[in-house]
Amino acid sequence: MLDANSQIIMNMHQGEKSRDASSKVCGFLFQDLIALDKLLNEQTEYVCSEYVEDVFVSSKDTGAVYIIQAKYRPQSTVTLSAVMRDLYYQYLRLQLYGYTGKVIPVLAMHCKCQLSKPTLAEMQGKDYINVCRTKKPLFPPKGSNWLEKNVYQLKKDDAENTCFNKFAWNDSIENFLSALEIQNDYKVLKQYRRDIALKLDKINFSGCPITDDSMRQNVLLGLAIQYIQETYSEPPVGMDIFSFRKRSHDEFVQYLSNQICTETEENIGAYLRTVAFDCWDTVEKFNKQLTQEQIDMLQCICDNTADWLFHLGSTPQGQLQLLNTVSMRDRDSLFDFSKWCIVKRRQIICEHHDAVNTFLCYLWKILFDINSNLIGKTITNEEMTKLRPETYFDTREKRYLKVAFPGEMASSAVILSAPNCAHSDQDLTCTFERMEPLRPEKWYMCGKYHGKFSYDQNVAEISNNRSVSEIHTNKFRIECMDCIKVDTNCWWQLEACNSTIFLDNCINYKEEE
Asked: What is the pTM of this model?
């Protein structure tokens, strides 16, 4: 039986469903890390992500609840007025429902500029609450459905304004400011991720078979993020969303113990999730010209990719699909891969870290280019599917990752790793051996190879760029990717894929007939 305060917290999801970001965002990495940070604290009773605010935390020791907005803005600052409106709206709603516990609103951020609390006068101004009322208004009686009738049907800004105009008053705003915490000291994602992984590794998981420290930390982090990610799906029939999204410290540790102490397929998927984060760390570090809007969209693509890789890598078939796409090994070296033990398969996946990284860079840059119209926009649920990698893969093809981008003239294509300059012909031979029975019509493969070839050709002819004629059978095209820039300080540039890499001819080279 829930006590009165717990019932009020459960009710707080009312009116938020239409604004619930979980179905479209699935939690950005920064807020997931904050949720994990709080879960690792033994004094935390429970954490809910994307509930009331980005992260909602109940504390055991103080009995307080924290409503946390998470903002990661490495290239810009935070619009403080918008954050304060959102936080005060939730703070005021708890008062309206009659919540008697301590409420601590929090802005947790990493941004370009340090921020401090606004004053009462600023909060009363038109950019913030736009209310200056000295006397406490008459609250609706408990059990009243005033909010449901007059607020929850409105759009976000209108809902806040209606609530403020009816019930905000000076003492309430002052109490809000007194309780408010602005936490400016969060680190860049790479370092914060590393810190959380080290905290996870300090838990005593007796019987963990993974002895390599780096691998164990990566798997733990990937599993921990998955634990949070699972809360963004729809709850089972008959279960309320509050109970479904609650995650307690003890349950969290037990989940990690069950997973990390047993060799499971999910451990490989968890490792692959962190490979996506490694890739993003490099992109962010070496591309300082990216705008904040561009970073936001690329981070969204990265986080969606990390989730996709987890699920792909959590089955032997998915692992082999990935390897058949990115590997430079010959076909025999992966023979019977699905029958190997989990430890051996995880090691092979680990050895392909750089190859997966190359694959992700080109996949992300193409998605970034073809969806550039979404940069800086508030993305709808329908538009969010355009930023998910799985949207562009043919699920009917189970042997490799077959892509089909809108506007691509080839009916099937594959993104391959770049051949090593020191032995590129050997890499090409291995790739050809793998692709010959699969026969995609286009290879996206940066490097010296480019043009139209045939699967009936000798590999030596392909390595010498001996193109075939248009009438030749079993043709495929190698796209050199010169038109897509993924190097240092190039990611901010947008390319027109429809007039370059999606064409049937290379715009940079004259092909032999």
From this structure: 0.91
